[in-house]
Backbone:
């Protein structure tokens, strides 16, 4: 088969070495290349403009990222061609490391100890046990269920909110607007792992942040638009939210003048909480290429109506 | 039985409420109290001066801390009375959280991202997978084996060094001076969890730090005297050691003029990586009190000749 790769940020070289070794009889080429039009399958993340209109034979658009909100917002994306997300165990593991790191930073007061270090101040703060802390996960899909299990293994209490009630071992499940209003007051730490859809945009806003107990922490590793930034800043300024760990922002790169940069209550990472890792993403992508070849349904297809 | 509690830093009230509920027929009192001399058992951490010479009936000294180096260095400690360490699963869990947090802070470049945030700089750094990183544990006792298993569950490669070769699932075991020299060159991160003895004092020094690969990290959550501070500072200044996460120091509280405080390569916590948690320490202490009562050997006895 002919497989085109198109991304304005991911480099094809890292992928082609692995793909060509796994599938020596397929042809991989990076857009734009002469005769791109005969592609059966497109591997994409932030694809080049004009790509889709020139691929009449396409049988699958395979995202090499887990989040497909930017792709779905692209008016050029063909809706008659199936679109698959990338479920990369390495990316899920990376997200787990990042979330756990943020949760422990807050739980064990490391952000306060950094402040004390800057003041040359030696003072032990009260130690809590993980079982004393409740973490609320927004999103209970691949990421949420894996991260929930990880947090449970440390004895954190874990609650999870999703579109529909889910059954995840050890995780108390909530759904819908009413479920969110019931869950948030119990959370010392809330972690956003949701896909970005019309229903989840702005889910962390003045109203929902006010439902958190005073002194809670907010972790956002999903999409910037899940958080109403002015509302989070107000909650940080009032002290109602004690700390925010933010990896994603309404505008990325985060503009130089943004108040987050210098805010003492904010930890910023540059959308680096979890990057797709070609070594671990490869098996699923190879599987989907082989499924297209043999006429089987690809894995992890996006439901266009649900938006993820 | 009569049980005396003596500590210059731990408060007896937190313990007595739990102990009196668990053992309603025993008598708990805080030193100094009239008639302290009839104590059968002493619960201690940094005990008051003169305590031991006034307790002629003592059958067990039960430390409420895991580390007993300060007790063993106390010339007043009676060596004809057995001494037990405290193996507190809550303290072990807290240590696991602290070590994992330091390991991930280094592994996921969070210390560099904090620096970038201070400079309002948005730049993704190369993502490594946990399996790309090797963590060397100095010490493979209760702490090392538990923390080794935790790190393995994240797919870190884990090596462990101890006085004698040990068999810990998934952990490559090293022992002796030669073993240390073999292990250190493989470690991206070395974590000191050792008891402080004549053999382990100054184990991280110019010679051993030089064996680490360039750009490694050092985590010390054991005792300050495990590290030769001037040697670690030199290794940090040269860049050979990229980062040090230090919870313990030769002198505590860390003196205001110490170069660690303002060193850009050092994260300082005030000996807070893991505090004994009365709620989880209680079962073992109750068990040892009952063992003394019934004439059985207490758990976790210290080997005076080994020094832990």
Residues:
């Amino acid at each position: 088969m002919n497989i085109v790769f198109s991304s304005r940020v991911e480099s094809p070289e890292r992928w082609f070495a692995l793909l060509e070794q796994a599938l020596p009889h397929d042809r991989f080429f990076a857009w734009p290349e002469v005769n791109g039009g005969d592609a059966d399958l497109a591997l994409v993340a932030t694809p080049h403009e004009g790509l889709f209109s020139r691929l009449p034979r396409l049988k699958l658009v395979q995202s090499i990222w887990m989040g497909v909100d930017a792709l779905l917002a692209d008016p050029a994306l063909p809706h008659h061609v199936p679109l698959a997300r990338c479920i990369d165990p390495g990316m899920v593991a990376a997200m787990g490391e990042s979330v756990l790191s943020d949760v422990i930073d807050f739980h064990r007061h490391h952000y306060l100890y950094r402040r004390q270090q800057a003041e040359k101040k030696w003072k032990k703060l009260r130690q809590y046990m993980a079982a004393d802390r409740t973490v609320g996960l927004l999103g209970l899909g691949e990421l949420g269920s894996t991260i929930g299990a990880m947090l449970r293994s440390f004895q954190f209490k874990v609650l999870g909110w999703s579109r529909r009630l889910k059954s995840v071992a050890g995780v108390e499940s909530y759904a819908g607007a009413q479920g969110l209003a019931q869950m948030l007051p119990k959370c010392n730490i809330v972690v956003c792992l949701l896909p970005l859809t019309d229903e989840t945009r702005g889910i962390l806003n003045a109203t929902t942040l006010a439902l958190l107990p005073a002194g809670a922490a907010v972790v956002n590793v999903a999409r910037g638009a899940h958080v109403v930034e002015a509302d989070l800043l107000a909650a940080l300024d009032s002290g109602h939210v004690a700390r925010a760990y933010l990896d994603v922002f309404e505008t990325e790169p985060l503009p130089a003048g943004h108040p987050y940069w210098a805010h003492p209550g904010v930890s910023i990472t540059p959308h680096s909480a979890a990057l797709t890792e070609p070594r671990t993403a490869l098996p699923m992508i190879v599987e989907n290429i082989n499924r297209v070849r043999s006429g089987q349904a690809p894995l992890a297809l996006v439901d266009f109506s649900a938006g993820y």
